[in-house]
Amino acid sequence: MNTSFKIGSIMGIPIKLHITFLLILPVFALVFATNPQPYGFADIGSTTMNYALSLLTTILLFGCILLHELGHSYIAKSYGVEIKDITLLLFGGVSSMEEIPREPSQELKMAFAGPLVSLIIGFGLLGLNIVTVNIMPSYENTSVYLMVGILATINIILALFNLLPAFPMDGGRILRAWYAKRMNYVKATHYAAYIGKMFAFFMAIIGLFFNAWLILIALFVYIGASEEDKSTTVTVSLEKYRVADVMTKDVLSVHPEMTVEELSHFMFEHKHLGYPVMKGNSLKGIVTFTDIRNVLPHERYANLVSDVMTKDVISLPLSANAAEAFKTMTMNNIGRVLVVDDGTVKGILSRTDLMRLLMLSNEL
User: Fold this and answer.
1) Does the domain spanning 243-363 belong to CATH 3.40.449.10?
2) By CB distance 3.0 to 4.6 Å, which of 77, 223, 230, 287 could disulfide with 309?
């Protein structure tokens, strides 16, 4: 199920809305609509005007969050990092990057860019209100003044909150960059993740007594720190190995004219769940157990491998390392990848192969 949809592109980066964003949008609007000044519009004009201002403020707020993420992305792109997309979701936005820069100074600048954008927006809007009130005193009593003030305050709070050293938030990434100047990258990530999890723990305790939302945020921070720590450890460990040294070289292949029923027996006999589809020396696609699972038993005699196989084959060259293979599988949500060199299939590498490699490397 696709939980995000694209609404446009900025700087060549696809901008997406997650389904959780659509759920939180009316919630934020309701909060603004039911709170009095200076935090909402409950005592401003008619009910219709109240909710219209609240919805507009919410949309502008998420526009500011998008600018925050674009700040990260702009710096990342300047260092050659590919940005897959930016997605607005429940608690803000997230930039999906090909990889985080390993150079500490680069990561520090990239992490600080988002909060810096939020601070510029926040203090810029505060300055706009102050200047406009001095020129036109009656402006202070308008709904626009109130809206600008709310957006300014939230942007400043957003920047300061993100600068907390709670990995994987921006402040936590700045902390990792500081550690990485003094130790190896994996150990720096361990330390930053540990501090992030401690922040999450104390945030959850505070949430028990003051605000239940903090408990949910703490949960996301804790999970994010744990996942980032694990992902970094896996990536750095796998970088030491070449795909050519890990892949299965004797690759069994199947013919596109084989029936799905024959393929199911072939899989049962050879105990593998994925095979390249070859016609002579030509690679036509790849077929996996997932491809045939949804074919009804009585239809398997009539359907051919060519009918169910994946034609857009994701492959890697022999020169790639195991970390690149892991990243390719994760980003494309696949369990195996073909190793192709000069148009010839040289091997196949599965997620299981990589997990086995990790287990062995940890024992060495």
Assistant:
1) no
2) 287
